[in-house]
Amino acid sequence: MMIDAPVGTGADPKTLLIVDDDKPFLQRIARAMESRGFLVETADSIADGMAKVDANPPQYAVVDMRLGDGNGLDVIELLRTRRPDSRAVVLTGYGNIATAVTAVKLGAIDYLSKPSDADDILRALTQGPADKAPPPDNPMSADRVRWEHIQRVYELCERNVSETARRLNMHRRTLQRILAKRAPR
Predict the structure, then answer these.
(1) Quick one: which of 109, 55, 112, 54 has its CA closest to 86?
(2) Which NCBIfam families match (predicted)?
(3) pTM, whole model, 2 decimals?
(4) Residue 9, pLDDT above cutoff 50
């Protein structure tokens, strides 16, 4: 379905790839972004998303961090190599500072926690470099700071659970349980 391009983009439609394994969310966001002037393609796996990036790299992408078959950062990294001028946003229910930094290093322009609505996604995709996010209303709790530290060490250890557990002086199974849970508030 082709929709008129948003104002200021010329005659070319803005292409958008959305990669998420939550099908109701994927369909809802795809419809919402189509109504905002994007030509949308969807993928519900890393493999499908990477195939679509290989075939026709989009101008924009919205990629879930964790999918059933891998890490969404792989799609971001491939997109950045195939189309350096692309703008990608990472969505996640497992937000933390370490993965946000990794996402930005790999080429993402923003990192949003789920649930995010279409307006949040549109704002993230189209904001200029001078636009700054507002400061948080609530500071992180002590539990959240601990969780962030664990995530940072986990990323520094290239997602190796055994090495992370050794560096944190923690039992590996305890660490696995912590990593499987959502971030504390």
Answers:
(1) 109
(2) ActR_PrrA_rreg
(3) 0.66
(4) no
